[in-house]
Every structure is written in structure tokens, then in C-alpha cells.
């Protein structure tokens, strides 16, 4: 049996385009030729977090409509009315990244499933995934009770693992010239290559052909 081709997926859990890439990501995860690694960049965490004001909400909704038209991924009215209209919380992916790291430590093979559950919670159910209690509830419902419990009381190891994952992903972005997310790196170590993000939004047969050629 030949070794599987490693694919590193650079993303942020509050990135609408990353949600739009969900079907392509599922196809890659299901293909035994590939080994998929999720690499959260913290693009909208820490200094990247910002107030969710009227301007940002309008920009996000307009962008989301483009993503839905291109990918078929649903952005519901509940998301618009309950998430984008809420001015009490910042646009901050730090809590969701922490939640995904808790899954990564407890059940790394389930991280993509957990990401999809958080995205569905936000964009379809209109849940606030900047709220740790909401995140814990979504993780528990998705079958990750250990991660949900750990998220409820984050320990030093979880916090450090989250910082390390973000730092590693950002270093990879710099090293390979990725100027945003989502992005794909294919291969191992320094021999990895950055693929155009557009391949995630083409016909899936084109994506697989592009990866095979790479």
C-alpha cells in the first residue's frame, strides 16, 4: 500500500469561504489517497478579532450570498437575524479555535466533523459560536463530550496547544505565500506546495485531478 498524500488545510472557523469549502473538504477526507490535516490560522482571533458592527455585518452578508450562489452552502435567515445582528459580541474566532483544538487533542480524526458542526450551528441554526457555552453544546451534540467538558474549563495544556497550532499555521502561510484562507498545502515538510484556493470551489472532479497532478 502506498503512502497517502498529505494535505494541510489552512482555515479559520469564522471564515465564510472556509464554510463554502466544506463539500470539497468532505470529499478529500473521504478519499483514502489523502491524509487531511486541519491547521487553524487564528485569522480572526486575538489581534484579528474586531467588533461586529453594522458595516462588517453588511459586508459579511453580501459576501455570504456570493458564497451560497457559488457553492450551494446555506446561509440562513436565522444566521442573519441572530448572529450578524447581535452587537453584544465581537467577531472573534478564538473560542471556536479553542474548541476545535480540544477535539484535536481528544479525537483528532473527528476535527473536520466538529468544524462542520460548528459551521452548521452558526450559518444554518443561527447559533453564536463565539460563546463557549454554545460551542460546548454543539461539540457535545456532535459526539465530542470529552472536548466539550474540557472547553468548559480550559486548562494550560489546551491553551498552549491552541497557541502552538495557530503559530504553526501562520508560519506555514508566510513560508508558502498564502495571503488568506482557505488554502491548501500538499506534500510534506519543506517540499509542500501551495495550491490555488479556487480549486476548492470548482467541480470536485477538477479538484481531485488538480491534486493528483500536484
Topology:
Blueprint: E1 5-11, H1 16-20, H2 22-30, E2 34-40, E3 50-51, H3 54-71, H4 77-84, E4 90-91, H5 94-106, H6 111-123, H7 132-141, H8 145-152, H9 156-176, E5 183-186, E6 193-195, H10 204-213
Approximate strand percentage: 5-15%
Please count the helical segments: 10
- Cα separation of the termini: 20 Å
In this structure, how is the largest beta sheet organized? 4 strands, mixed
Q: What is the CATH H-level superfamily?
A: Glutaredoxin
The name of the CATH architecture is 3-Layer(aba) Sandwich
Helix fraction bin: 40-55%
Broad CATH class:
Alpha Beta
Let me know the number of strands: 6
CA-based shape: globular
Low-confidence stretches: none
Mean pLDDT: 95
Strand order of the largest sheet: 2-1-5-6
Computed CA radius of gyration, to the nearest angstrom = 17 Å
CATH topology: Glutaredoxin
Features:
214 residues; alpha+beta; Glutaredoxin; four-stranded mixed beta sheet; two-stranded antiparallel sheet; 10 helices; 6 strands; globular
Description:
- It is a single chain.
- This protein is of the alpha+beta class and 214 residues long.
- The protein has one domain: 3-Layer(aba) Sandwich (Glutaredoxin), CATH 3.40.30.10.
- Helices cover 54% and strands 12% of the residues.
- It has ten helices and six strands.
- A four-stranded mixed sheet has the order 2-1-5-6.
- The protein is globular, with a radius of gyration of 17 Å.
- The two termini are 20 Å apart.
Tell me briefly what this model is.
By secondary structure, this protein is of the alpha+beta class. Helix content is 54%, strand content 12%. The mean pLDDT is 95.
